[in-house]
Specification:
This protein is of the alpha/beta class. The protein is built from twelve helices and twelve strands. It folds into two domains: about 1-195 and about 280-325, TIM Barrel (Alpha-Beta Barrel), CATH 3.20.20; about 195-280, no CATH class. Keywords: Oxidoreductase.
């Protein structure tokens, strides 16, 4: 199982990707939410120029944020400057759609979108929104076709998994959104957010709250559909967001999403929210989680570090990941029914 990294991009992310390569992470992907994070293309271009072997990627491109040709052109450019080491994930969109007060794309749209992307990257033309479109880069630009890029589908339920199977694509998923740790055969990557606790450290310690809190806050946003269902914190957050002007709820819910606290999140991010809403734990506990994922069939884990000291988080997680090789084989739990939840 590959140990990979995943970042909500900031201006410091290229530095962190360089470190991830030095530490032995196989891939470094970033989120694509341009109204909230540093620019996707600029961040990965900077990282590509400073790295040699680590794979780079985006998770996820969605139909909402840019025209089909704009995403295809960005993929072509990044794949050209990082030859043989660029991946692109496509998803229905949760956060990215919510920022625009829109609903996630339907899976039929995603299937059509991926098919069109593949055609454009192969150098072909497609009928899109009433027009014939293509990528028309002259060889003088340095970008030539076809462009070969592995495509992944971000999915968290049976409809998304079925779409990935039909497209012959890998799946990247967040197991906190459903019950089955590995939903399909083949390439399946699991996201992993949290912090490695130091010896004697508790879930409610200031460092742990700062490092894991932004990721755990996502569980507050999921409410009764997430791992905090039925808790006082989830109910309190639901009441707080309900008090916001309905025209701004989509903004305030996702302000700082996955990278920082916002004023609505912070009062409800407790040690219990960290424990239940993230995958934080001791090095041995995290190693055990990773060993269980590996034995269940996961082909990769994407770790998202958080807080003010990203280098510390990367180093600690990489060390914990190595411990999994020292853990005896673990029984794989029986899977429960799938749960369909969208997330960008």
């Amino acid at each position: 199982m590959e140990i990979n990294s995943l970042f909500p991009p900031s201006l410091a992310t290229p530095d962190h990707i360089v470190l991830a390569e030095e530490l032995g992470f196989k891939s470094a992907w970033i989120y694509d939410v341009p109204v909230s994070f540093a620019d996707t293309g600029i961040t990965l271009a900077a990282a590509a120029a400073r790295t040699k072997s680590i794979r780079l990627g985006v998770s996820v491109f969605t139909p909402h944020l840019r025209h089909l040709t704009m995403n295809a052109a960005l993929i072509a450019h990044l794949a050209t400057i990082a030859p043989g080491r660029f991946d692109a994930a496509i998803g229905a969109g949760f956060s990215s759609a919510a920022y625009l007060a829109r609903k996630p794309a339907k899976w039929a749209e995603i299937e059509e979108y991926v098919t069109a992307l593949r055609t454009l990257l192969a150098g072909g033309e497609v009928d899109w929104e009433g027009a014939v479109v293509s990528l028309m880069h002259s060889p003088v630009t340095g970008i030539t076709f076809p462009v070969e890029v592995p495509l992944w589908i971000a999915a968290h339920g049976p409809k998304g998994y079925a779409t990935a199977r039909r497209l012959g694509a890998g799946v990247i998923t967040n197991t906190r959104h459903g019950h089955n740790p590995v939903p399909i055969d083949g390439l399946c990557a699991l996201t992993f957010g949290g912090t490695v606790l130091d010896e004697g450290e508790t879930y409610d310690s200031p460092r742990v709250i700062e490092a894991a809190g932004p990721n755990a806050a996502m569980a507050l946003h999921l409410g009764e559909q997430g791992p905090l269902a039925g808790t006082d914190e989830a109910r309190g957050y639901a009441q707080a967001i309900a008090a916001v002007d309905v025209r701004r709820q989509h903004l305030e819910t996702h302000r700082g999403h996955l990278i920082d606290f916002n004023k609505l999140d912070r009062p409800f991010v407790t040690g219990e929210v960290i424990r239940r809403g993230s995958r934080s734990g001791t090095a041995l506990e995290i190693a055990t989680q990773l060993r269980r994922m590996e034995e269940a069939g996961a082909t990769a884990v994407f770790y998202q570090p958080g807080g003010p000291d990203i280098p510390r988080e990367l180093r600690a997680f990489r060390e914990a990941a190595e411990l999994r090789h020292q853990i005896p084989a673990l029984p794989v739990p029986e899977p429960a029914a799938d749960q369909e939840v969208q997330h960008a």
